[in-house]
Amino acid sequence: MAGSGQELSREAQVRLAWIDFNRTRGRNAAWACGSFRIGRQAFYRWWRRYDPGDLCTLEAQSYRPRNCRQLIWTPELAECALRLRWRFSRRGAGKLAV
Length: 98
Prior knowledge:
This protein has 98 residues and is mostly helical. It has helices at 10-25, 29-36, 40-49, 75-87, 93-97; strands at 2-3, 6-7. The protein is built from 5 helices and 2 strands, in the order E-E-H-H-H-H-H.
């Protein structure tokens, strides 16, 4: 099985088997979930993600964020803020920002 010329991983092949089983048997999702002993929520997640034209959509995706915040404070500014926090420990960030 290949999606766009690329071999599918074992997990993606199993997910494809779930979807094929559901389509060929003409049953509802509960029947497929019971046969493969998977949760309905997992089945529907992969069902929504599935694209028949691109089987790579059944591969696991990273949960890593695409963008990360960049550091905008200079070291001097960070040290100044730390000194203020130690000096006025009962004040919150909003009061110290003023």
